[in-house]
Amino acid sequence: MTPAETRSRPKVSWLRPVVAVVGLLYLALGVAGFLTPETAEVGHETSRAVWIFSVTPVLNIVHTVVGVLGLLAATRRSGAIFYCWLLFVGFAGMTAYGILAAAFVNPEDPVNINWADNWLHGLTAAAGLALGIVAARRAR
């Protein structure tokens, strides 16, 4: 056997726990949003928040789904890498939407994204991009 044949694929052992933590954080944020009493109404009110993040049914569903997908993706390396790219694309889009929504406040906006949400989503998109690039390079 040649040395190339005896080498196994490099493992990205740190990625799955990181994806699980991201999934748990988003799941906790989504569930906490559902437990906020004012979540039943849809509209743009700054008083409805979990910590500093706005609370609406749409955002709660998105955060909960992202959390559950993160926990499911953490079971396999390929799923974790795909999840990182999904985080990047999804949250980059949400950040773009959120910047416009926060800049031009519409009282009937069902998503009700504030600037704290924009920072969270933007940092999540950047982290997804960085993790996806590093993990994909190490997996080759």
UniProtKB/TrEMBL annotation:
Superkingdom, taxonomy of origin: Bacteria
Pfam families attached to this UniProt entry: DUF4383
Keywords: Membrane, Transmembrane, Transmembrane helix
Segments passing through the bilayer: 12-37, 49-73, 80-106, 118-136
Protein name: DUF4383 domain-containing protein
Organism: Amycolatopsis melonis
